[in-house]
Amino acid sequence: MVRSLRFYRIIRTLLHYGLDDLIPKRWQPWYLRTVRVTCFWLRNRHKDKPLGVRLRLALEELGPVFVKVGQMLSTRRDLLPPEVITQLAMLQDNVPPFSGEVAQRIIEKALEIERIDQAFVDFVQRPMASASIAQVHSASIRLESGDIKDVVVKVIRPDIRDTIHADLELMESIAALAARYLPDGRRLKPKEVIREYRKTLLDELDLLREAANAIQLRRNFNQSDVLYIPEVYTKFTRHNVMVMERIAGVPVGDVDTLRAQGVDLKLLAERGVDIFFTQVFRDSFFHADMHPGNIFVDPSNPNDPRYLAIDFGIVGTLNREDKRYLAENFIAFFNRDYRKVAELHVDSGWVPDYINIEEFESAIRTVCEPIFEKPLKDISFGGVLLNLFNTARRFEMEVQPQLVLLQKTLLYVEGLGRNLYPDLDLWKTAKPYLERWMHEQIGWKAMWRSLKANAPYWVEKLPEMPTLLYDTLRQSQSSIKLSQSYMEDIMRQQQEAAESRIWAFGASTLAIATLALGLMLDEPWWAALTGVASAIGWYKAWSDRPKHFMQ
After folding, report:
1. Contacts of 534 (CB under 8 A, 6+ apart)
2. Based on the number of CB atoms within 10 Å of its own CB, is 264 exposed (0-12), middle (13-18) or buried (19 or more)?
3. Which has more pLDDT, 327 or 359?
4. Which of 283-287, 396-400, 452-456, 529-533 ranks highest by mean pLDDT?
5. 476 is in an annotated binding site
6. Does the keyword Membrane apply (predicted)?
7. 128 a known binding residue?
């Protein structure tokens, strides 16, 4: 009953904003049009607004889960028109906070304390910020050294799990219907989109996972002057509560303030690109939610600005093969070597090996060559990746979740960089990094690093080498003897089979002769004689058959 009521409210909201217009009239089956006319009280009340605006407003009204869906869809420019994407990108996570008293009780229960002052020197019930999944409170803790440290306490919304699971089930049902009945349902892959969204959203609900991500990123950039990751206090962190160092900085989107404080915006933009490629290619572990709300700038040294990052619920990883193929793809693309791009997609397993390489190469050239009519600084790196993936999908490229996250993050980074410094030449900044990384992977330095990395293992195994060598030689000798035995067995079976076939052929001939003589001659003893000979032949064929097949 509750699910049915929620489903009705969702449908009512969607129809009040006229979102049935998202489905072209020619795609709407007769029964859907009939239902729409029948529900006359659910008319479009916002006809004066563009479709993208209506979609954004509807998602905001439906609540946190749908806001997150809109934010995710805003990165999928292959699914929706640009004007709709622009509106979805405006979706904010500013939702009404829940009671500070309730938050305090959640914290006390999670930390197994009776009073909040047993964990915090100071705790402010009024939230600093409120988002769809959690809200944040300011507090202070006493360190083991006795110093007081300002922190933020992130608390998952109460009962949000039940709401999320219920809404996800409804979304999956709607996605299944869309995939089945919409003519373009297979291309849009609504079920895959919701499945990807489910995993991302459920991961964000576990603050222990987020804390582990933050600790890993902080370790990766521990000595860095370009990115600072706040410290997480694991003593006070649970699945639904996380305590982290409080930082102070200017939001990266507040360009006017950064400019007023004299921050070197060109350097800041270039450092953002450097941070992204360092995370992807050096660490294979990157912050995958780098939208402006999660990135700040430390302006204390304007000529040497540093980024500050928060919210580590979504991270991406790439394996060694993906990193190498991705770097080679970028380099080949900007060298206009489309044959190489096509071959790399096949070699990496992203595209099936039975695809016609020539046709694939031609498709990539057709889509991507016009890009080079623009200056390099005007070429969208994220757009390049999007064009490659969209073209590859026509050639049966499977959805690669790690690459979808990478594409989304690259679009964020590119948007941030060009917002800070519109003339940012992303390729000029990134190409030396990619070429240097490739050189390190395939040159003599890479071989030396591999030797150094494996040396402790080899040293550990060195005392065992004589025994392993002796065992290997014994096994080799046994294998040779066994192979010889098998060969002799096979030859014996072949000889027996040949003899059996000869006897069977002779017996068959005599059987035919017996039948002919019995019909043609009046004296039966000739037929009897050939019949006995045929029987003897059949007996010999059976007795000489290969006996080994019976084992």
Report:
1. 507, 508, 510, 511, 513, 514
2. middle
3. 359
4. 283-287
5. no
6. yes
7. yes
136 is annotated as contributing to ligand binding:
yes
The helix (run of H) or strand (run of E) holding residue 109 is helix 100-111
Q: Give the global pTM.
A: 0.68
Beta strand extents in 325-368 (DSSP E only) = none
Alpha-carbon distance of 273 to 158, in angstroms, equals 38
Q: What's the rounded mean pLDDT across residues 314-341?
A: 81
Query: Would you say 214 is a known binding-site residue?
Result: no
pLDDT at 146 over 70: yes
Beta strands 227-228 and 250-251: pairing type?
unpaired
Angle (CA) 430-315-194 rounded to 5° is: 115
- Residues carrying an active site annotation: 289
For residues 228 and 309, give the distance between their C-alpha atoms in angstroms, rounded to a whole number: 7
Return the closest-CA partner of residue 500 out of 446, 463, 542, 531: 542
Distance (Å, rounded) from C-alpha 436 to C-alpha 281?
Answer: 11
DSSP per position, 121-148: SEE-SS-SEE-SSEEEEEEEEE-TTS-E
Separation CA 303–CA 298 (nearest Å): 11
